[in-house]
Structure formats: C-alpha cells, structure tokens
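Deliverable D2.4 — example input (structure tokens):
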C-alpha cells in the first residue's frame, strides 16, 4: 500500500499535483490513465470524464473499494454493509449516524 505521507502536493500547483497523483495511482493501483493530467486539473473537466476516471478507484477488490467500504461501515454502523454491488441501505440511513 502506498503511504500517503510519501507524497507532498502543494495546493497551488494543480497540474503538478495531478501528474504526481495520477502516476502514483497508475504505479501502485494500476489505475489506467484515461485522462491526461492537464484534463483532470482543468476547471473545465466535464463531470462524466472525471467520474469515469474516479470510478476505477472503486473497482471491486481495489484499495479504493476497501477504503470506501470501511468509511461507509463506520458512518452507518447500524447497517451490515459488506458489498456495494447490492444496495442494502437507503440514502436516509446516513442521516441516522
């Protein structure tokens, strides 16, 4: 697993941040470079392109999938959530935590 503290990303350098982050995602998580860093850093990035790239982090058995699963289980402890393929909770369940 890639230690988060090993990457320093100053906020003011958007393009450089995207290059570093996308390279780390490719190298460590095998996330394909379906966008260029220039596109991802652009304020004009269309929502579908951004969501498509980010969806690769949520592939079943990927690090992003497990991280999101842990976060969701923590946020909705009264539900038994073990996979995102079958939705067993309603959006308002998040209001109960």
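Example output (designed residues):
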């Amino acid at each position: 697993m890639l230690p988060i503290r090993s990457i320093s990303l100053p906020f003011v350098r958007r393009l450089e941040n995207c290059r570093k982050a996308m390279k780390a995602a490719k190298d460590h998580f095998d996330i394909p470079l379906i966008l260029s860093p220039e596109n991802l850093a652009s304020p004009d990035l269309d929502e579908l392109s951004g969501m498509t790239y980010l969806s690769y982090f949520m592939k079943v058995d990927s690090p992003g999938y497990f991280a999101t699963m842990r976060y969701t289980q923590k946020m909705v402890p009264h539900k038994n959530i073990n996979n995102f393929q079958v939705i067993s909770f309603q959006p308002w369940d998040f209001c109960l935590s």
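Residues 60-97 form one domain.
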